[in-house]
């Protein structure tokens, strides 16, 4: 799958929202905010962290696609680093994968799955990530969950390819007048603590024209 639309940006604005536990947020912020400051400077992305004392907080990344995925990669790498440091006595093979869930409109899942499951199979094989699309819609919703698990690079590449499919879906929509170069793709990702793939907790991804 060609991810040039993501790599090159094509004037596409992407917003990724991550719902994270307080401990992970603290790690992303770093001592006196040095870690998140470095991420902002090196990636060029706008990174905002919600205020409050809730157990979970929102980290929002916004900017051109190539910038967003640079910041996203830095955050995923930081989480992987924290996992490794907390499991110093375990081997890399025994560590559970980073797991997250996206939520997309049910109407877009057909494009992601593809005829006979060919598209999602292609994404799995090309990225090495585990990807599962829920069969049922979420309660009181018109959306379905997509669970992704794997090593950082696999997750990053998988999310890129999912975004490409979503952008292609938008560009072929009868309501789209400007094509993917003008679309604003908004999504929300929740990164959860490493737990068994089948039992991971949901997060949401919303896409708006």
Question: What would you say about this model in short?
Answer:
The chain has 209 residues and is an alpha+beta fold. The protein has one domain: K Homology domain, type 1 (Ribosomal Protein S8, Chain: A, domain 1).
List the helices and strands and how they pair.
Blueprint: H1 4-7, E1 13-21, H2 22-29, H3 34-43, E2 46-49, E3 56-64, H4 65-86, E4 98-105, H5 106-113, H6 118-127, E5 130-133, E6 143-150, H7 152-171, E7 184-192
Parallel strand pairs: 1-7
Antiparallel strand pairs: 1-3, 2-3, 4-6, 4-7, 5-6
Helix pairs in contact: 3-4, 4-7, 6-7
Structural summary, described in words:
The structure is a single chain. The chain is α+β, with helices and mostly antiparallel strands and 209 residues long. It has a single domain, classed as 2-Layer Sandwich (Ribosomal Protein S8, Chain: A, domain 1).
């Amino acid at each position: 799958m060609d991810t040039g639309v993501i790599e090159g940006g094509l004037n596409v604005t992407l917003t990724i929202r991550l719902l994270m536990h307080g401990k992970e947020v603290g790690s992303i912020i770093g001592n006196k905010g040095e870690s998140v400051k470095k991420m902002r400077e090196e990636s060029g992305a706008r990174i905002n962290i919600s205020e409050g004392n809730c157990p979970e907080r929102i980290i929002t990344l916004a900017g051109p696609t190539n910038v967003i995925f640079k910041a996203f990669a830095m955050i995923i790498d930081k989480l992987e680093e924290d996992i490794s440091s907390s499991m110093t006595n375990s081997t890399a093979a025994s560590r559970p994968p980073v797991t997250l869930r996206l939520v997309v409109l049910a109407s877009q899942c057909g494009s992601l799955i593809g005829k006979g499951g060919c598209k999602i199979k292609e994404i799995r094989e090309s990225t090495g990530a585990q990807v599962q699309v829920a069969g049922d819609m979420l309660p009181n919703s018109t959306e379905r969950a997509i669970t992704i698990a794997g090593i950082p690079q696999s997750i990053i590449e998988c999310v890129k390819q999912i975004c490409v499919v979503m952008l292609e879906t938008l560009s072929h929509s009868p309501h789209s007048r400007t094509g993917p170069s003008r679309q604003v793709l908004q999504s929300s990702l929740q990164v959860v603590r490493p737990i068994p793939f089948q039992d991971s907790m949901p997060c949401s991804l919303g896409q708006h024209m």
